[in-house]
Amino acid sequence: MHDLSDSFDLKELHWLLAIVQSMDVGIVVLDLEYRVCVWNGFMQNHSGRTVKEASQQSFFDLFPEVSQTWFRHKMDSVVTLGMPAFTVWEQRPYLVRFRNYQPITGQDDLMYQNTTWLPLVSTNSQVEHVCLIIYDVTIAATSRKQLESLNTQLEQLAHKDRLTGLNNRGYWEELLRQEFARYTRYNSMAALLIFDIDHFKKINDTYGHQAGDKVIQALARLILTSARVTDIAGRYGGEEFVILMPGTDCMGARLFAERFRKRVESLIVPHEDKDIRFTISIGIADLSQPLKSHEQLIHNADQALYLSKNGGRNRVTLFSEVSPNP
Q1: Which are the contacts of 212, defined by CB distance < 8 A and separation ≥ 6?
Q2: Where are the domain boundaries for CATH 3.30.450.20 in the chain?
Q3: Torsion of CA 175, 225, 269, 298, to 10 degrees
Q4: Rounded Cα gap, residues 170 and 267, in angstroms
Q5: Looking at the domain 160-321, which fold is it?
Q6: Rounded distance, CA 83 to CA 43, Å?
Q7: pTM for the predicted model, two decimal places
Q8: Which residues lie closer than 8 Å to 309 by C-beta, 6 or more apart?
Q9: pLDDT tier at 36 (50, 70, 90 boundaries)?
Q10: Which of 20, 89, 228, 294 is the most exposed, fewest CB within 10 Å of its CB?
Q11: Which segment, 38-47, 103-112, 177-186, 212-221, is predicted with the most confidence on average?
């Protein structure tokens, strides 16, 4: 009977080793000196090192990219507490640098990994080894990243004007409302520019609507390259645009507006065999006067724009220059 039991134990051990070798996860058993005691087929296939080459080697020699301080702390806590530990790819994309060979997710060079650390209790009831299990979660991680990227793109599309790439009116007004609340609360300054393309209908009538779209896109690109990172620009509608300039009063905004107006005046938009030139008119208002709402700031800048248009176009007007009784 004793011989049969020994035979069954050996047979069972052989089966367990065969299962471990064929599992589609990385299995590494380390002693307390971080030397490799077990190295399964997954580890061999992805590392390029055979069981013989890895056996009794330091884990840090095999994977120099692993932070020794972090790894030692992680393993010591597993040994001391006798409790499993885990890492997930969202916190640490991978433990060891294995190349990704998943055909569906070929755009990611490295394998995303989750890991489990299991304390192994010896016959003396002490934890003398730790089993490290490495899971390939590249497909799930890549799918999650792609979904997050798609959601970000959809969110941006909801906020952006399709023709220009600037903030659309709804989103820009919401940002203005938030900024106005912040500025009025802390008594800080901001200036608002509203401007539109002079004689835009004439451009459409003369060159066609495709040419008009090109002019709008050219102006949008100029806005993006001229505005500061902190400025909030948007397409207000049709050929009308807005820029909110935080921390700027009307005089500072006027200096910017004059430079910008001259850049627009010198801009050439090629269309078919024609070169299209155009100008803009600008109105400016700031928070130097008490305002009840962000809509009133828009109204003031719009009144200044109206004066620019009536004054001959291709000019900049401050709200303070608007007559109180037009």
Answers
A1: 200, 203, 204, 239
A2: 2-145
A3: 30
A4: 29
A5: Alpha-Beta Plaits (3.30.70)
A6: 24
A7: 0.58
A8: 198, 281
A9: very high
A10: 228
A11: 212-221
